[in-house]
Please model this.
Amino acid sequence: MEHYIQTELGKKCLQELLQVWLDFDRNLSKVPIVKRLETGRLSQQDYCHLLLNMRQQVIEGSRWISRSASSFDRNHSDVRSSVIHHAHEEHRDYLMLEKDYLAAGGKLADIQTAERNIGSEALHGYLMYSASKPNPVALIGAMWIIEGLGNKMSIRWAKLVKEHLQPSINITRFLEYHGKNDEDHLKELYQLIDRVASSKDNVASIIKTARVVGRLYCLQLEEVDNYE
Amino acid sequence: MNVYINSTGRYLPGNPINNDEIEAVLGLINNKPSRLKNKILKSNGIKTRHYAINTEQQTVESNCNLAKKAALNCIEKSFLPSRKIKLLSTATSQGDMVLPGFSSMLQAELDIPEVEINTSHGICSSSMMALKYAFANIKAELSDNALVVASELASRLFKHSRYEAIEDDNIDFNAEFLRWMLSDGAGALLLENIPRPNTTSLKIEWIKSFSHADVYDTCMSLGKSKNDEVKTWQDYPTYAEAEKSGALLLRQDVRLLDNIVAVGVNGFLKLISTGDVDVDKIDHVLCHFSSHYFKGKIFEMLAQSGTFIPEEKWYTNLYERGNTGCASLFIMLDEFIKTRTLSSGATILCMVPESGRFNCAYMLLTVEK
Model:
């Protein structure tokens, strides 16, 4: 195995990120809609609601990554390149999500006119605010959580949705898609962690951001059931 | 006050039974060989195990007997006569009797007068809870010593006749899974507040556990049929009806099983961040876990973060002695210290992840010579 993380601080940062992820993953299992999904009680309508509520965040996702790219100065141009690459890869993901929504029985007008739920508002607000700060290295923590979630969606959620809803056509392209470039993404993340975890303050801010994003992501999914 | 494990013992009933012989002991369900057996055995890697039932599925030795033999094996090699034992703390997932507690029954077998008793009930990690009770007792200077015994006789649950008693012959994968996993055996540890010369004394640095039943559903269970949401075995009009409905089969919800890896790693990282574990200073790892779990992304991440303990430091006898539930770790520890030359100051990290409803227990030991 190739070791992408060479520095002690980088290793410490990854250790803490792993812990934040595992705590987040556990909290996620307590969110009612996720609990229904994981215990085979998710209805097709639930699934449509889930996609509808995730769409806004997916659209905004590429916006905050793009904005953060512009906030890195020339001393961080390598980080900026990596972040731009990431944003470019994902900025049209929502189209795939919309197709799944239609395939699962939703109406295009509904998903396109839907407002952000309360959790999405908070998550979006926090990410755009963080991305606007100079050299926002802390956002590596956000990328870590969202990347991990993508992995969970593709490996576990897509499988569960298929198993329980047994759709006749593909309604899980968006969930599955995230698994495809996983290895490369992970390698890039390792390299970014090694690059930016260069001080204790940086590590602390990365971890804090990962925690906040994890909490707000749970809030966004909790709000799926409150969405009318 | 320091607490030391000054003696260990184990007992595994009968001859080792290899994979081809299992069904000769447990019996063929409806006279047909299992179609799942090889698949499950391949994934758990177990080659031999022991059973306290014979090929007629009759009990040769009771669970209490297994516990007694492990306890005697432990006491015989100690500095302490059994009459001087102050505390008997035991664990089992199922005693021979439903009531009273296992410790009461074992005390009688061992003939220890006026001893304080504690019985810990649960699955694999219940031995660690029994051990923690004993450890904390000595630590708090309430006792000078304690005998801790963990014993399992799971094979009685896996007799072919148990499965044949199910109403519609519909035996699900989850109910058969553990038939190829669990077997019988007992282990014992003697704890004292002083180390002893000319023996391997293991100082218990700490025992900690984290349970996640608030998050996850039941993964390994006995007492509910596969289709019933609410009713448990005692809610049926008769025990016969409970058995017929499958409420008395031991089940593993294999879909949930993967969570045990996340739970185990999470606790491990927590102990690193609190300073309880320093990965570079761990010399040996004893884990009640099949090593086929050590694949996958999470272990690669541990390696990237410098927290994966190299495989050469891991020890297990699971593949030869079988998975004996709560007794496994004690049986492992006993064989480990009796077959290895351990240097003074060496550290042993023990881990017992329990899939029941996701409890994971950890212990750190230091060798004192």
The mean pLDDT of chain B is 95. The domain at 202-216+254-368 of chain B is CATH 3.40.47.10 (Peroxisomal Thiolase; Chain A, domain 1). The two ends of chain B are 18 Å apart (CA to CA). Chain B touches chain A at residues 212, 214-217, 262, 265-266, 269-270, 272-273, 297-298, 300-307 (CB under 8 Å).
